[in-house]
User: Which sequence fits this backbone?
């Protein structure tokens, strides 16, 4: 197994501000810096992540089940699948196991990186992209949302407005895509942004009357967006192998993210990619106002596209505003870029698009942490009265605290830290959450120095993914073990959400932070930093 450690001189150079060589010249000769058990931790991480991915791929490839959508598949071409008729018990146990060991594998990998050892970043990038490609050609798994996307796209192709028409209306027209749409949301109009609707319409145009083909196109674009972020992270952090490996652990090789976003084909992958590139393009202001204005225009357009996919990604705009706050010209350009993307599409679908987005703000998910208090004080009720004002206030307070005490980000990307702060506040404290929403934070966290923030985010993602599995609606078999495990889902996952939220606040109040090794600010890398010279192989 190949691992890498960082040399003493690399630690000195990367730890210095701006990525320049540390004062004092060359580091004294000596053995590579490696923490105790680093190689063992790295091996365990590789094993856990690999096992989790193999389980997920096997369940996905096995065909329709409680984890994989059951729709007619085309005779030729993707998506491909085997019809193995897996039992509900096997699917549930396998995926619950995969979610736990997958989250543990990422955590162990982060610990290994902190101690100076990690797999080859190039290998991690290649492996993650290969797995994403495999998930792409398999049917949607872990969620039925992609079938809702297909129905909304089909409505546009037929000349209807998905912010007015429902999947049930489409079914009543005896449309095959309407029949494939899940019953859970058949009375609901689209809750996605107009750019997501355009993407769904394009997939429906290409897929015709085959729900499986439409789902394939939707998954393909999500996978391409996921891969674009992975390649960008690999390029941006090319001069800092530790940060590069950490980024691939959190994003490219994260089994939970691969399952929640790529395997399911969620639009969050596209929204996260647009938002990510908007924050990266923002960069640091320079002396040339024209260059800053052009970058701000592009950043605004990308963040506007992200918000046009899913409305919460408008929070990324706060990061752009903060980074450009000293230049009125740049702020104006960013606003113009966002408006140029959003206004035409919202006008195309009318006021109904805005009204439809507002309608979902009153919903809560069954694993939200606030139900713990309602169950305790309101005789087992799962609904806490006035939960939305409470959640809004908690999110606002958490956002202020995170903006104040969140560890410093990399100077090369000043928009990331404020955008991450407000996004974490929304993710942790809003009562309607799904695990694939966490792509919003992970795309930024992968471009952020290692810190205590990693652990509550990873813990929350693991708990949310465990709760959402296996993915298809329906009651579990009435066996003792599954019923006890399901009770654990219902009670322990909200508790895990509460614990991670409290941990996030305690971390801010305590001011705890890791001593991290930042990468050189891109694109100001020196020639020596651009290669793989800071990597050293070791074997026993």
Assistant:
């Amino acid at each position: 197994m190949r691992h890498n450690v960082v040399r003493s001189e690399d630690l000195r150079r990367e730890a210095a501000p701006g990525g320049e060589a540390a004062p004092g010249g060359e580091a004294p000769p000596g053995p590579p810096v490696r923490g105790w058990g680093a190689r063992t931790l790295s091996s365990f991480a590789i094993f856990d992540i690999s096992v989790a991915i193999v389980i997920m791929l096997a369940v996905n490839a096995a065909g329709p089940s409680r984890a994989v959508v059951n729709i007619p598949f085309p005779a030729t071409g993707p998506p491909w699948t085997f019809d193995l008729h897996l039992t509900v018990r096997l699917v549930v146990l396998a995926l619950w196991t995969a979610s736990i060991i997958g989250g543990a594998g990422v955590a162990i990998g982060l610990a290994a990186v902190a101690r100076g050892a990690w797999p080859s970043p190039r290998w991690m990038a290649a492996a993650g992209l290969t797995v994403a490609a495999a998930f792409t050609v398999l049917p949607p798994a872990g969620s039925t949302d992609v079938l809702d996307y297909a129905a909304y796209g089909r409505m546009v192709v037929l000349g209807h407005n998905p912010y007015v028409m429902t999947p049930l209306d489409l079914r009543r027209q005896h449309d095959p895509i309407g029949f494939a749409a899940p019953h859970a949301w058949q009375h609901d109009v689209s809750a996605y942004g107009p750019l997501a609707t355009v993407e769904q319409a394009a997939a429906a145009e290409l897929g015709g009357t085959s729900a499986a083909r439409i789902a394939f196109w939707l998954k393909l674009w999500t996978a391409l967006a996921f891969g674009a972020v992975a390649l960008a992270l690999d390029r941006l952090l090319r001069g800092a192998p530790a940060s590069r490996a950490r980024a691939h652990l959190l994003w490219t090789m994260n089994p939970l993210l691969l399952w929640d976003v790529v395997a399911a084909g969620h639009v969050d992958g596209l929204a996260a990619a647009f938002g990510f590139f908007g924050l990266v393009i923002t960069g640091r202001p320079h002396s040339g106002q024209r260059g800053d204005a052009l970058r701000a225009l592009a950043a605004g357009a990308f963040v506007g596209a992200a918000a046009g996919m899913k409305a919460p990604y408008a929070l990324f705009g706060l990061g752009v505003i903060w980074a450009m706050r000293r230049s009125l010209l740049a702020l104006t350009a960013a606003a113009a870029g966002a408006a140029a993307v959003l206004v035409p599409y919202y006008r195309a679908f009318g006021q109904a698009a805005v009204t439809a987005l507002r309608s979902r703000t009153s919903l809560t998910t069954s694993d939200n942490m606030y139900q713990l208090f309602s169950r305790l004080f309101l005789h087992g009720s799962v609904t806490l009265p006035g939960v939305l004002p409470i959640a809004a206030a908690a999110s606002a307070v958490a956002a202020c605290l995170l903006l104040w005490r969140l560890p410093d980000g990399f100077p090369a990307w000043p928009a990331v830290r404020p955008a991450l702060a407000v996004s974490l506040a929304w993710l942790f404290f809003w009562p309607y959450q799904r695990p694939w929403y966490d792509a919003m934070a992970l795309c930024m966290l992968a471009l952020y120095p290692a810190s205590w923030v990693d652990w509550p985010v990873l813990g929350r993602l693991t708990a949310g993914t465990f709760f959402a599995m296996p993915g298809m609606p329906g009651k579990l078999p009435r066996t003792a073990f599954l019923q006890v495990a399901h009770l654990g889902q219902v009670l322990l996952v909200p508790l895990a959400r509460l614990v991670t939220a409290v941990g996030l606040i305690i971390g801010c109040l305590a001011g705890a932070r890791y001593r991290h090794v930042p990468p050189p600010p891109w694109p100001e890398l020196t020639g020596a930093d651009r290669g793989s010279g800071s990597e050293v192989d070791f074997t026993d």
